[in-house]
Amino acid sequence: MLCRFLVGPVMQFYWYWLPLYLVSARGMTLVAVGALTWLPYLSGDVGSLTGGWTADGLLKRGMTVPRARGISMLTGGVLCLGSLAVVAAPSIPLALMTISIVMFGHTFLSASMFAAIGDMFPESAVGRVTGLTGVSGGLGGILFPLLTGYLVDHYSYGPAFVYVALMPLAGAAALFALAPKLRPWSPRQGE
Predict the structure, then answer these.
(1) DSSP state of 12
(2) Number of Cβ within a 10 Å radius of residue 185
C-alpha cells in the first residue's frame, strides 16, 4: 500500500498538471497541447507492456521473482528521475521527450508493482489487496495534488517535478523494505 501511495500520484501529476504546465510555464497553446501531448501517454502505454514483458522474460530465464521485479522497478524508477530534467529542458520538444521517457519508466515500474501483489497473495485475495492498494493510491492522489498546487502557487513547478522524480524509487524501496523476498503471504492458523 505504501508503494502505491508513493507511485500512483506520479502518473496523476502528469495526467492533470501536464497541460497546465505546458500552457503556463512553457507558453504552449491549448491547440498545441492537444496535438502533442498524446505522445507521452502513448509512451506510458508502451512502458506498461514493456515492463511486463521484461519481468516475464527475466523470470523465464530463471531469475528469482524478487530479483526480476526489483530490476524492473529499479529500471523504471531510474527513468522517472528524468522528471528532474523537465523544467531545465531548453525546448518544448526536449521537455516532451523527457516527459515521455518518465511516463514510460513509471508504467514500466508499475507493471511489476501490480504483479507483485499476485506474487505475494493467493488468487482469492489478489482482488481485495489490489483494491486496498487502490485506496492507498487514491489517498496519495488526493494529497499530492494539494502539495503540487501549494508548490506551484508559492514557488514553481520545479519542486513538484523533484518529488515526482523521487517518489517511484521511494515506493519501490518501501515495497522491498517491507517485503524483501516478495514471498507468498499465508495466514497463520486462527488469523
Answers:
(1) H
(2) 13
Q: How many CB atoms lie within 10 A of CB 152?
A: 18
- Of 190 and 50, more confident: 50
Phi-psi region at 91: left, alpha or beta (left = phi > 0; alpha = psi -120 to 50) = beta
3-state secondary structure of 185: coil
Task: Output the DSSP codes for 15-81.
Answer: HHHHHHHHHHTT---HHHHHHHTHHHHHHHHHHHHHHHHHHHHHHHTT--HHHHHHHHHHHHHHHHT
Q: Say how far apart CA 50 and CA 166 lie, in whole Å.
A: 21
Helices marked H in 121-181: 123-154, 158-178
CATH homologous superfamily, domain 2-26+37-178? MFS general substrate transporter like domains (1.20.1250.20)
What CA–CA distance (Å, rounded) separates 25 from 134? 31
pTM score of the predicted model: 0.90
Give domain limits for the chain: 2-26+37-178
Q: If pLDDT is split at 50, 70 and 90, which confidence band does 125 have?
A: confident
**CA R_g for the chain:** 17
Type of residue found at 94: L
